[in-house]
């Protein structure tokens, strides 16, 4: 997992968390407890809603390959397994089934990617090249939540500003979910309500400027007309 953090002063931080931490031969009979079969990195999206309070933390889990693992534990739990893994030369399905040990999931380490203090001077976070959070008007926006609502409910010109899209989506979601409060609707977008209100004010100001420009152009055209 590659995490890129962009700071407001131009600094760039790249955090590379290995997601291939595993034993090359995890099924040997003489294994001792503590042999990683697979690794899972948990980066919870709700963290992006309140980075300046909690920071950004990655949780690394690993799955123990040893069936007898754990001093105070019995043998690893087992489960009945059945799956079609292919076909024989006659086209008949090949069925793999049996009693299989279940690898125990264990927590490995917590990795602090960004402290709450550092989050105050960061402006953008990407994970594996995908935008996950960005700062707008001094507030963190959950880009994942915003993008999901945008896919579902927004349709307009590709060049529309982020403010314009956010305001339009907010308005659409209010109509779709009349039972929800403004704060709850904003949360669906990954926005704090104060950031939505700031976007609405910015859009109103932009629209006023555009209306004034159009009026000015029309007035000039009228004055230049020979009629």
* Principal-axes shape call: extended
Evaluate the radius of gyration. 27 Å
Q: How many helices?
A: 6
Number of strands: 10
Give the uncertain stretches in residue-range form.
none
Q: What is the helix/strand order?
A: EEEHEEEEHEEEHHHH
- Percent helix among the residues? 25-40%
Largest sheet: 5 strands, antiparallel
Summing up helix and strand content along with how strands pair, one would put the structural category as: alpha+beta
Head-to-tail CA distance between termini: 68 Å
The pLDDT mean sits at: 79
Give the oligomer, counting copies of the same chain as homo and different chains as hetero: single chain
Tally of separate domains: 2
Portion of residues in beta strands equals 25-35%
Strand order of the largest sheet: 2-1-8-9-10
Outline the structure in words.
The model has no long low-confidence stretch (mean pLDDT 79). The protein has helices at 51-54, 116-119, 143-153, 162-176, 182-188, 193-224; strands at residues 2-7, 12-16, 36-42, 56-64, 78-87, 93-101, 104-114, 122-127, 130-136, 139-142. The longest helix has 32 residues, at 193-224. It has two domains: 1-66 and 82-125, no CATH class; 137-227, no CATH class. It is of the alpha+beta class and 227 residues long. The chain is built from six helices and ten strands; from the N terminus they run βββαββββαβββαααα. The chain is extended. The strands form three sheets. The chain has a five-stranded antiparallel beta sheet with strand order 2-1-8-9-10. A three-stranded antiparallel beta sheet has the order 3-4-7. It has a two-stranded antiparallel ribbon with strand order 5-6.
